[in-house]
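Standup notes, structure subgroup. Blocker cleared on the (3R)-3-hydroxy-L-norvaline input:
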Amino acid sequence: KILITGASGQIGSVLSEKLKEKYGTENILATDLHHNPDYIGPFEVLDVTDFEALQTLVVNKGITQIYHLAAILSANGEKFPLNTWDINMKTFFNVLEVSRLHNIEKVFYPSSIAVFGNNVERVDTPQSSNLTPSTVYGMSKVAGENWAKYYTEKYGLDIRSIRYPGIIGYQSLPGGGTTDYAVDIFHKAINQEEFECFLGPDTMLPMIYMDDAIRATIELMEAPKEKLRIKTSYNLVGMSFTPETLASEIQQIHPNFKIRYQPDYRQQIADSWPMSIDDTDARKDWDWQPKYGLKRMIQDMFVNLNTPMPFTP
Ligand code: VAH
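Run returned:
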């Protein structure tokens, strides 16, 4: 039985659907801060900062795996730094402790390319780069990676983690990230609206299509434990592109689509992140292989966005 925290979020809302497909709706317990009336299946309102509430759900529902997706992301996280740290760390500590105390078999912990800061190689950023993040969100993910490694080594907890790049999908909207422009742009294009991009045209960032990100997550969770050499978090990437490249590819399909660039505070965050990622370790340890490049992703986005969304998040 799997519990998902942050199940109404950008990743959580897609991951919960995939996990229901794979393991059966009744074996997935979706949770988030607010009830989601559109969700089909077991759903509980849960504030993961509440240890007792989390423990009660895990015990009463016979949970054996936890996917911990609740967090405050990079851009929003800069508005109230100490609150971001408290929320991101408190929730993960609760997940770690409840998992240790109740013999949870596996835990998934999402990290991010936000763990990388300045003074690392920004092209094909290596798995083992030193981590000097420029955002509180990134700092919380570096700390989280090390706590995951600590619980793995000290308590034998099976925690697996991916450093997600920017994630692009049609099923959900992102919430407060620095890569959100790459989702918003598609909605503007299909609504024939001009897009104001909060990053400059040449801002190269590592990205991944949602379908690849979800498949990678499940493949990592199903990989034989003995093959997983990285105990902090795996680098992973689908593709890298700039807003200008994305916009010109979109204009192949929507010739009248217009974009203008209005960099804001998120530009500094993006400038501290890698431009591309070396994910050799994920390819070697658990056969990671992306299936979506830029053109295929754009095609799939427009095909699916032109059909009504299953629910409005
Ligand atoms: C964010 N989408 O922008 C998230 C992610 C790498 C980006 O961490 O904060």
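Discussed briefly. The two ends are 25 Å apart (CA to CA).
Next: hand off to the docking folks.
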